[in-house]
Amino acid sequence: MKYLLTLLLTTFSFNISANDHMEVLYGLEITDGHLVLLVKTHGCTNEDSFKLSLEKAGEIPAIAVERTKPDRCRKRPSIKTVKLPLQNLTVISNDFMVANRFSLPVGELF
Fold this sequence. Notes:
Number of strands: 6
Radius of gyration: 16 Å
Number of domains: 1
Low-confidence stretches: 1-18
Strand order of the largest sheet: 1-2-5
């Protein structure tokens, strides 16, 4: 029983840390072959700061948005709109999930 609990905790910890690189999204819209995202910025975030990937864990594929360039500016945090092309992703059907977490902008992000 002790080993099973250790295994479960280790697996749970791995799953949490594996998703740490994915950006928290504040909104999402698909228009004209692009994924339009609302993300947090400190002043140095742009379209080149992100990478889209397609994860196929089950029957429905999941799009993941990963921040590849950290925003090290010191401006007050705010929400920025970025537009990423979907042309590099091959989604077989119109059904897909988004792997990232979503949050509501609160406090200083408005």
